[in-house]
Amino acid sequence: MKIIPAIDLINGKCVRLKQGDYSEQKFYSNNPVEVAKKFEDEGADMIHIVDLDGAKNGSQENFKIIENIVKNVKIPVEVGGGIRDEETILKLLNIGVYRIILGTKALENIEFVKEMIGKFGLEKVIVGVDAKNGFVAIKGWQEISKIKAIDLIKNLEKVSVQTIIYTDIATDGMLKGPNFEEIFKIRSIFKGELVASGGVSCQEDFLKLKEIGCDAVIIGRAVYEGKIGLKELKFRLKRNTI
After folding, report:
1. CB distance 36 to 241 below 8 Å
2. pLDDT digit string, tens, across residues 44-65
3. Virtual torsion, Cα 205, 211, 215, 219, nearest 10 deg
4. Beta-carbon-side half-sphere exposure of residue 122 (alpha carbons within 13 Å)
5. Helix (H, G, I), strand (E, B) or coil at 15
6. Alpha-carbon gap, residue 71 to 179, rounded angstroms
7. Does domain 2-238 have CATH number 3.40.630.30?
8. Alpha-carbon distance values, 130 to 94, 127, 216, 236 (Å)
9. Is the pLDDT of residue 187 over 90?
10. Nearest 5°: phi and psi at 209?
11. Domain spans of the chain?
12. How big, in percent rounded to 5, are the helix, strand and coil portions of the chain?
């Protein structure tokens, strides 16, 4: 199971939100490149970057920071937030981003997802499904749609989406554990790579997610605040002691 620490960007700084609330920002660093290098040194398999400004406003606003992170680490980098057209996808892939995450656009236009997968490949275009009370959230979590996350995921599988990142907004940034019940439901209907995000607070959470069958886990606040050590976690995962 892959371990993917998150770097959420607002105005070029590393922050975390509580339950997707932009008024509940917690600042962690004004040097995202150094944070990324530290994650790499500690054994992260990949780095997950979200341009929160972009997610909210609809266009990438931290491009230079993302480019600098990609240049300074050797591990793969995935990027989401404000990616809603082919030009932005191409721009990010051209600077070396490993894969891009579609969110709002996937709900608004599933044919666009299919088209981008056809152009760039299954590994390069993935989808982030963010949900609150089972319904898909869009536009930087500012709007809750009337579409159930489960239904969207079923439709995404039909257009050959290979990887889904599922984030439960109610648990995100709360350090109270993931929504295991919902993740289990998603695992039972989605055959591709499932990445769980939101609420991970301890090593036991990883064990439960591994048992459910998640392929990777994104961690945020828990690693920033020292609740989880990446080195120890990787050590235990390699020896199957978690």
Report:
1. no
2. 999 999 999 998 888 888 999 9
3. 0
4. 10
5. strand
6. 35
7. no
8. 26, 10, 16, 29
9. yes
10. -65, -35
11. 2-238
12. 40, 30, 30
Residue 35 structure tokens: 């944070």
Q: Categorize the per-residue pLDDT at 242 as very low, low, confident or very high, splitting at 50, 70 and 90.
A: low
Does residue 11 contact residue 54 with C-beta atoms inside 8 Å? no
Q: Does residue 237 contact residue 207 with C-beta atoms inside 8 Å?
A: no
Question: Could you give the 3-state DSSP secondary structure of residue 117?
Answer: helix
Please give the radius of gyration of the chain, using alpha carbons only, rounded to the nearest integer.
16
Q: What span, in angstroms and rounded, lies between the C-alpha atoms of 147 and 188?
A: 19
Quick one: which of 157, 186, 174 has its CA closest to 220?
174
Give the DSSP H or E segment for 204: helix 203-212
User: What's the gap between Cα 224 and its chain centre?
Assistant: 16
Question: Each residue of 186-209: b (16+ CB within 10 Å) or e?
Answer: bbeebebbbbbbbbbbebebbebb
CA-CA distance, 17 to 170, in Å (whole number)?
Answer: 11
87-107 confidence digits (pLDDT tens): 999 999 999 999 999 999 999
Residue 129 has a CB neighbour count (10 Å cut-off) of 24
Element (H, E) at 35: helix 32-41
Give residues with Cβ within 8 angstroms of 216, minimum separation 6.
1, 2, 3, 4, 45, 46, 193, 194, 195, 196
Side chain identity, residue 232 = E
The residue written with tokens 């993917």 in the block is 4
Distance CA 39, CA 4 (A): 9
Catalytic residues: 8, 130
Residue 109: CB atoms within 10 Å? 13
Residue of 216, 217, 229, 231 whose CA lies nearest to 171: 217
